[in-house]
């Protein structure tokens, strides 16, 4: 297995291009199941999770063609065509590797009248149930059966009637599944307390481009007027706000100045607000953001929350940054119950962090030092890279498959701004 070796202490300076958003891509791809016509996505990041999803689409008989890509470019253009679906089953083998596979349930049910998806297993960042996905589909008229580790959703003859669902907890994935089912329902559906993350807006925009009628886009109350059929579309995936935020933390912890080309400031207001509180300058313009940290880092009190609050996907990276702040910070994780697994690893690098339940107390230290570390999830792994960039000596990060799931050519992007980082193969 590959590992990353980072020799810390280099000030990052230059420009990093921001890739297409992984979490948006993972909900845009299954939209191909909603139409017989080709759907083309531009700016798809080249990531293990996206490859996994292409594979899953192939399982349903969807043709997937990748157009003219040069190895030096970031992103790619992919066309999906689901003119005929040969299967409505998402098997365990594919789903267990990628939780987001559950996002085929809604669109496949709406298009084919039934869908069978293996239950996603437990996940490193908490229990992560799918009850709300299922309840929303039931509210739209589906019958749900659970057997032998699979969820089977069946629509009545003549298709899903549509209906209303009020989410008791804000869920990104369940909102996405519900939206993708409602657009092909016979009637009008309403979602209350829906997630309003920018990735949900991206999904709505693609669905509208495909001919769907959705009111309230960007708000927590959505009205969806079902259509008989949807057409194909060509659509550009939004920039990855979490990738951009991660590199902003990397720049800041090295006292550097980095331009994040293509970042959309409007989607990352909470992250940028947190960075400014920590003493990092963030300049926003129409084409990106520039992050500069030339003074001391200040401690901050941060709490994660559904959008427009601070993204839970930024918690680990901001925590790494706060390890070098002058004073004591308090972080509260309100979305997932077990998302502090980077804490012991950061501790091995000299960080001073204690946790109690969902609260973490981070007391800044003068020096972090290099160590051999590994993490159990994607953003946790990134926090170790960030700490490694500022640490004295050499840090080795193992289990790179986590990073490869969500950061397009991470080491190349960091090399672009002067980091001393290399990927070393095991053989
Ligand atoms: C998505 C993102 C993930 C991000 C998370 C929160 C993708 C592929 N993943 O995950 O990176 O960290 O949003 O912003 O887009 N819940 C239930 N029942 C359900 C579903 C969720 O109780 O049926 C709970 C979860 O346990 C969690 C909370 O709702 O406490 C939010 O989870 P959710 O927004 O659904 O996260 P995901 O869509 O899985």
What does this protein structure show overall?
The protein is an alpha/beta fold and 427 residues long. It is built from 14 helices and 24 strands. The protein has 2 domains: 3-18 and 239-424, Alpha-beta prism (UDP-n-acetylglucosamine1-carboxyvinyl-transferase, Chain); 22-236, UDP-n-acetylglucosamine1-carboxyvinyl-transferase, Chain. The model has no long low-confidence stretch (mean pLDDT 95). Bound molecules: uridine-diphosphate-N-acetylglucosamine. Residues 23, 26, 100, 126, 128-133, 169, 171-174, 195, 311-313, 335-336 line the site of uridine-diphosphate-N-acetylglucosamine.
C-alpha end-to-end distance: 8 Å
Number of domains: 2
Q: Supply the CATH class of the largest domain.
A: Alpha Beta
State the CATH architecture of the largest domain.
Alpha-beta prism
- Secondary-structure-derived class: alpha/beta
Number of strands: 24
Give the overall form. Answer: globular
Rg on CA atoms, Å: 21 Å
Q: What is the CATH superfamily of the largest domain?
A: Enolpyruvate transferase domain
Report the major sheet. 4 strands, mixed
Percent of residues in β-strands = 25-35%
Helix content: 25-40%
| Model regions low in confidence, pLDDT < 50 over at least 5 residues | none
CATH fold-level topology of the largest domain: UDP-n-acetylglucosamine1-carboxyvinyl-transferase, Chain
Quickly count the helices. 14
Mean pLDDT: 95
Query: What small molecules are bound in this structure?
Result: uridine-diphosphate-N-acetylglucosamine
